[in-house]
Design brief:
four-stranded mixed sheet; 15 helices; about 55% helix; mainly alpha; flat
Amino acid sequence: MAQERIRLKKKIYDKTSTGDLLDNSFSEIINSKDFINNTNLDNNINRLFTLYNDLFYDIPKIGQQSHTTLFKQSKDYIGNFIDSKDEEIGSLIDKIIDLEQKLSNQDQPNEEHPFYRNGTILVDREAHWNIYYMDVGTRRKIDGSLESELFLDLKAALGYKENDSWEDATTIASPSVIASIPPGPRFGPEDLGGAETNVEEELATFEDSFNYSALQDGQLNPNNYPITEYTIPSDYNPSIQYSTYQNSITNQIEQANIANVSSYDKYREYLVNRIKIVWQSEKRFEILKGKYENDKEFGFTESERNKASVLREAVVPKLRQAQETLVYYKRLWNRFRSPGANNSDSLMKLLNARENFEDIINTPVTDDERSEYGGWKKGIDNFPNIDLAGISSSQEDTGNLY
């Protein structure tokens, strides 16, 4: 039998060629059927992260098989990934844009009115309480009167002496001329101080300042003020003198009278103080609302206008709350507007207030009642025998009044 020679051929691939021919991705290293089993899946994930941690510092930072590739694939798979640094970068970019806008405005020469230079204080000829500060060619209404601390400080800042009259420091103009000048944002103490405040800082000056509830005010409830009632014996005769018995009854009656008048006076005094405090608060909130509405429309920059819009929305509920509180006080003051003339008068008024207090406080405030307030002295006639006019004229200078 003849022998047949069979030639065997073997092709050997080097390391470089093998990488080009074979797919060494995870799909070929690990059979996809194994993933059906949760146990195998957990084991594979654990093995993956064990290898990843072991090789962490050996994996290149950039390249096809690198940390950069892993990060990009994971980020694309997660979708809508937001890096906190991206938010911070966005915020910083916004600040840069705002600063560039301010620098751009500073680089430009200040606009000036052709007759009233920047730094001029204008006073309305027909209404001296309307005072304006000329700035960048606009009239900025000053928050305050000619006697206010703001005006006096501004006068001093412009180089005038304390004993210089307001006429020396101002320029008087007609209402029509003032109206023709473009309006600017209101001028307040923060402008004179030169410090800019953000929304949060300015909100803090009033946001938590008026958290008052008439229903929760125990001192406002007349039922908490003692009344001394005394039944006079039928045989009491004050004309009988030098009688120990008659004198004893007289003394008890006098003590009851004193106690009742005292309770009435104490309640009335507390109510007067509360009315003054809330009156000041309401007027201050009204001023802030007007300032923010003005700045919302006439602020120099978009940032200032946006800030004013936020602050205006925050102060309106405070103003409404103060006005509703004044409505409650008016209802009570109608019973206490006059001092108690005597025991009988004081006792009757206290008893009446006690009987009606819950209705006074629990009856909802109507729009007509609330509309009695708002504006400079609007509502002042609701509280006769209380000097609120003096408070109104000086309340701007007292800062937080709540």
